[in-house]
Design goal:
Strand content: over 45%
Number of helices: 1
Radius of gyration: 19 Å
Order of helices and strands: EEEEEEHEEE
Length: about 180
């Protein structure tokens, strides 16, 4: 189904979900100049296996790799502790709480590419984030401290500087 392949214990304290995302792109130029041959091509933009789940009822995890491009990359790798819906603690490599377009999944976007405004925020970062949903999902918040990588970067798993970034978000959906 749309949620992928799911394995679950009867009490749903243990859940494993397997799914994937593949996005491709084709570029073709009509009436090419003889001096610009070889610029047509087929690209694999994203080839991502997604492993997510729950262990011991309160701990969620997400592990996403990307095999598009010239090398494999770890996109997301985090562990989330759900004390209550209002109070959750996430640690690992994740999307920070800044940039609404960045927070939306690649699978729901209309295009393979993001807008130029999205280049002004970090893509993902390693850090610690506190967040949750309030009033039954009408409001949500997130605040965290992350490694201080630059705009539109997908950092590695190590940090060799003292720069840190603090970011937060409050989001309302009253209707």
């Amino acid at each position: 189904g749309t949620g992928g392949f799911v394995l679950s214990s009867a009490d749903t304290n243990f859940v494993l979900k397997l799914r994937g995302l593949v996005q491709t792109d084709w570029r073709s130029f009509f009436d090419d100049s003889p001096y610009s041959q070889g610029n047509d091509g087929f690209l694999v933009r994203r080839a991502r296996p997604v492993f997510e789940g729950t262990v011991f009822r309160d701990f969620d995890f997400l592990l996403v790799g990307d095999f598009a491009g010239s090398s494999a990359t770890l996109i997301d790798a985090w562990l989330n502790y759900r004390y209550r819906p209002e109070l959750q603690l996430r640690v690992g490599k994740m999307k920070g709480p800044v940039g609404l377009e960045n927070l939306q999944s690649d699978s729901v976007g209309s295009f393979n590419e993001r807008s130029l405004a999205n280049d002004l925020v970090p893509v993902r970062n390693v850090g610690l984030q506190l967040g949750g949903e309030l009033a039954g999902g009408i409001a949500s918040y997130a605040v965290g401290i992350y490694n201080g990588d630059g705009d539109y970067r997908n950092p590695g798993n190590s940090d060799f500087n003292d720069n840190k970034e603090v970011a937060g978000r409050i989001f309302f959906q009253p209707f």
